[in-house]
């Protein structure tokens, strides 16, 4: 019998900005193709143009939610849970701790639940006390009630064992796809759109929210006096005081380029021609943007938070988190360096390996009573 799986906790696929979304877009088509699974990814209606669709064999189902940063994920996850219960699915795969609150309900109705812990979202500065409490509760219930738990870094694996005594988690990394670049003329067109020249700009990619530390990068760039452009790829899902202030500050600075959200060929083209990649985050799970930068062999400068250190880059790649002067010094020293081969690092982040490991977790869950 073909096993059926419903996925919740993501805004949707394809081409919806976000680390969890990128993860799901890469993983589930492979699982369908390699193991003939019946997989449905639930999406949030404000972020996708469809009610029902299919993407590379993966069924897509959009459900309503509110566009409120605190309530959006829990309410959508609750609706998605009712949908999973009604559909009689074998397995529910839940992503991110904001959706962890619904796991006891799913288990009550006899569902096998796989939970993937992507990030300690309650560390993000944007959340208030109530939201942080809910996120911590989501993490606690996910660890207590999930049939199987997947973590994406050894740091997270050790932490879940220390905090909750969950010693049976499965370490399965995030993945990165090999670079797929268009022909050179199209790359040139994408660069021209933003008035960029090859190897003449620094790039940072991420959502415009406090935990990504882009304000620290702007300050460091100002302190450095570097003439190469700084390109910020991304935006915010909802306008916030932080995102509004960040964009205004960027627009007032010389040589800072705001591209908005990019995907596909355009994103890869802008990535591939950069001089240096910077990730100034205060909080991450396992940063997909960093893995993508590594796939393009870009020299990387990243904050020294545990999630970034878990990638095990050379020590000289890390700056003190939140320290704009330290980052400025590293920018001055780091620009103009040759491309880097990360082949030994990237072999651990192969989607074919990740899909096989995930399928094995599904099998373990099904075999449990």
UniProtKB/TrEMBL annotation:
Q: Which residues form the Glycosyl transferase family domain?
A: 198-329
- What Pfam families does the entry give? Glyco_transf_4 (PF13439), Glycos_transf_1 (PF00534)
Taxon lineage: Bacteria, Pseudomonadati, Pseudomonadota, Gammaproteobacteria, Vibrionales
Protein's recorded name:
Phosphonate ABC transporter substrate-binding protein
- Which InterPro entries does the protein's record reference? Glyco_trans_1, Glyco_trans_4-like_N, Glycosyltransferase_grp1
Domain Glycosyltransferase subfamily 4-like N-terminal: start-end pairs:
17-178
- Segments spanning the bilayer are none
- Native species: Photobacterium iliopiscarium
């Amino acid at each position: 019998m073909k096993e059926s799986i419903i996925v919740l906790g993501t805004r949707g696929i394809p081409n919806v900005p976000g680390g969890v979304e990128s993860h799901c877009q890469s993983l589930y088509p492979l699982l369908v193709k390699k193991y003939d699974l019946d997989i449905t990814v639930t999406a949030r209606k404000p972020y996708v143009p469809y009610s029902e669709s299919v993407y590379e064999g993966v069924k897509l189902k959009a459900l309503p939610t509110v566009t409120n940063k605190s309530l959006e994920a829990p309410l959508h996850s609750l609706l998605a849970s009712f949908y999973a219960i009604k559909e009689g699915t074998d397995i529910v795969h839940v992503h991110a701790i904001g959706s962890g609150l619904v796991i006891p309900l799913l288990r009550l109705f006899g569902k096998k639940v796989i939970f993937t812990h992507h990030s300690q979202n309650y560390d993000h500065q944007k959340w208030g006390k109530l939201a942080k409490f809910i996120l911590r509760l989501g993490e606690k219930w996910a660890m207590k009630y999930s049939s199987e738990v997947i973590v994406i870094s050894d740091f997270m694996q050790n932490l879940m064992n220390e905090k909750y005594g969950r010693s049976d988690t499965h370490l399965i990394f995030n993945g990165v796809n090999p670079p797929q670049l268009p022909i050179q003329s199209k790359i040139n067109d994408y660069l021209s759109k933003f008035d960029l020249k090859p190897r003449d700009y620094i790039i940072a990619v991420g959502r415009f929210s406090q935990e990504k530390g882009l304000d620290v990068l702007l300050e460091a760039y100002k302190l450095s006096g570097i003439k190469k452009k700084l390109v910020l790829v991304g935006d915010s899902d909802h306008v916030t005081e932080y995102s509004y202030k960040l964009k205004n500050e960027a627009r007032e600075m010389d040589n800072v380029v705001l591209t908005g959200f990019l995907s596909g060929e355009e994103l890869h083209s802008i990535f591939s021609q950069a001089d240096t990649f910077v990730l100034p985050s205060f909080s991450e799970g396992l940063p997909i943007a960093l893995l993508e930068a590594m796939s393009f062999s870009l020299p990387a400068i990243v904050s020294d938070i545990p999630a970034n250190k878990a990638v095990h880059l050379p020590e000289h790649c890390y700056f003190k988190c939140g320290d704009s002067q330290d980052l400025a010094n590293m920018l001055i020293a780091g620009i103009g360096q040759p491309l880097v081969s990360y082949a030994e690092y990237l072999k651990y982040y192969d989607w074919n390996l990740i899909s096989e490991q995930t399928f094995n977790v599904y099998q373990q869950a099904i075999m449990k009573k």
